[in-house]
Amino acid sequence: MREFRVLLAAQSLSTAGDQVARLALAILVYAGTGSPVFTAISVALTYVPELLGGPLLSGLADRYPRREVMVACDLVRAALIAAAAIPGVPLPVLWLLVFLVQAANAPARAARSANMSVMLTGDRYTMGLAVMSTAAQISYFGGFALGGVLVSAAGPHMALLVDAGTFAVSALLFRFGLRPRPASRRDATMLGSARAGMRLVRRDRKLRALVSLAWTYGFYVAPLGLAVPYAGQIGAGTVAAGLFLAAESVGSAAGGLLLTRLVPAELRSRLLGPLTVLTGVPLLAMVFEPPVWSSLVLLVFSGVFAAYQVVANATFVMAVAVEYRGQAVGIAASGLFAAQGLGILGSGLLAEAVGPAASIATFAAVGVLAAIPAGVAWRRATRHTYEYAGKEE
N or C: which end of the chain has fewer CB atoms below 10 A? Predict the structure, then answer.
């Protein structure tokens, strides 16, 4: 489908550009300040704003035509990144620009997801998400590799300009490659829309169960924050740390494609709870500090099971009325960002006391315990659907 290919190309391009910018930003700030703390703050600002922007700004994807929201957000981000690329920009101004860039990501992501749910209906949407997820993982690592080459060859300012260019091209792809569609609703302010989205999720048993399953992943991201110290603990080097960072994403991309192409839709829904539990099980074994290749296998398997996120995401979006999808997606995504951030922070603090391996395993154990009631809640919320389907058969 032509429109889906446009979405896929635009997302892949801007995702790769984002990774180029993250690397360039870290190098630029560290070169200018010599401060690891300031560098960490700069990188954190590429994640944190979505916690605020998600609930407040995602409703724009419902109140305005979604194609126009995506185009506007990409043009705004292109201009902001281009401003950040100007040599000599003061650090506080640079931080403000980065904050605004990421805040604009929330309505853009919500509009893209909601628009895709209209373009691809039923199980095609789930399969489309799996393809998007795989492409995003490829762009993620490709962007970091390209960023390293660009920064070495042309400097961080030019790398930031390249990122600005990816947003400009993405905006053009959206404008001329997607059909115009009217806004789904215009009857609420941003704050009112945020409240309505939160009420919708809170009052619907299925949606509550789905966000609980999705947010449980926050307990399973400890290896992302502890890859380097864990590699040191088992006597490996920085190459192994890089492999650890890649392993779970590779597993997740493969698992998403396998799950959506080989498993029937109804069975995928039934497997959501068990897969959420299984995501943490391989990480429990890391308490024994296995050697590099064994650790990589554990992380890959955890990633394969973590592909439940693709199914949970698709099920959540399709369970929400079209006119509320942008807002609801923003709320769910913001909660997931918060859970991941807290998981990385908490596991890092625990690692100071018990070591990286024990911290990863501890958070995985808590995640497994949290996933069990979330899975039970999902089973109960969908029980009538399963019973009805059984009678129809």
Answer: C
